[in-house]
Amino acid sequence: MHIRLRASIFISLSVIGLSGCGTAPQAAPPKYKVWSVAADKWQKTSFVDTNGAVVIAMASWCKYCAWEAKWQEPQLFHWGQAHHIRITLVDISPRGGIGVAGPANNAAAGHDGTGPFYGASRSGIKALDHTLQEYAAIYHLPLSAFTIDPTDATPFAKKAEMIPAIFLLNQHGQITRSFQGTTPASTIEAAFGTP
Predict the structure, then answer these.
(1) How close are the terminal C-alpha atoms of the chain, in Å?
(2) Which of 6, 10, 114, 174 matches a 20 to 30 Å C-alpha distance to 128?
(3) Cα separation values, 144 from 70, 115, 167, Å
(4) pTM above 0.70?
């Protein structure tokens, strides 16, 4: 009887130890194949940092995306770096042109850029890559933050009802909230609950 009791306690403790005291291990964040502008190649990325991510589905030609780039994203990148939240811009429109941002108090006052339709071919992606390099320089944003999804393969492209569309991800890569259209950086920061 004494031996059986020891055996059952050992088995119970082993099961508890294996299950992590009742918590299931979290799966790695999903990875999506996108074109990395900085690396100049296709890469698989999860988009997340230690505390999550902000993914902005945008288009280089869009005046509202340009407004975000000029007036909201510099603050957002600074905040993301301080809080270990990765910020990524995913161009989901295979068309060239660079939008011109309106003033801080009027996003609609800018204008859309014009450019050819590039499509999802390798030459089209390379052309959009070049456009985004110019875009990053104009709006003083890190080139490493730009990716391209020309085939609408990511959920960010599929769930964008308008551009820009902003998605908040937790550290497991799950979309926890989204905003459609221009959104103040302070609103995004508050949605994460960071100071």
Answers:
(1) 58
(2) 174
(3) 17, 23, 18
(4) yes
> Domain locations in the chain?
27-192
Spatial distance between the Cα atoms of 39 and 23, rounded to a whole number of angstroms: 38
Q: What CA–CA distances, in Å, run from 79 to 46, 90, 127, 159, 186? A: 20, 19, 31, 25, 10
Q: Report the SS3 class of residue 193.
A: coil
**With bands split at pLDDT 50, 70 and 90, how would you rate the model's confidence at 7?**
very low
Distance in angstroms (rounded) separating the CA atoms of residues 78 and 195: 13
* CATH number listed for the domain at residues 27-192: 3.40.30.10
Contact 165, 179 (CB under 8 A): yes
Q: Where are the alpha helices (DSSP H) in the chain?
A: 2-18, 63-71, 73-83, 122-138, 155-159, 185-192
pLDDT tens-digit map of 19-70: 455 555 667 899 999 999 999 999 999 999 999 999 999 999 999 999 999 9
